[in-house]
Design brief:
The chain is mainly α. The chain has one domain. The chain has 2 helices and 2 strands; from the N terminus they run ββαα. It has a two-stranded antiparallel ribbon with strand order 1-2. It is elongated and about 60 Å long. The relative contact order is 0.16. The mean pLDDT is 89.
């Protein structure tokens, strides 16, 4: 089972205007192009924690489903 199958990237969004096209660079501050709100990377991650957690749950379900299928085929014979 390849771990790369479970790689994901989550598009973070501005909690003020919903803009998903935020600049990704190594700057200390991230400025939303839609509303000019400024964030640190940590603030943006915190503001998007529900979105991130939902994606983690989706990945967990996918991994458990794949594991269950694999487990059943191992003990089928």
């Amino acid at each position: 089972m390849s771990n790369s199958k479970y790689d994901r990237s989550v598009a973070l969004m501005c909690p003020t205007c919903g803009n998903r096209e935020l600049p990704v660079d190594n700057e200390e501050k991230i400025v939303c192009g839609g509303c000019n709100r400024e964030f640190t990377k940590d603030e943006l991650i915190h503001e998007n924690s529900e979105l991130i957690e939902a994606e983690i749950e989706n990945i967990k379900e996918e991994i458990l489903g794949d594991f269950s299928k694999k487990f059943k085929t191992l003990f089928k014979n």
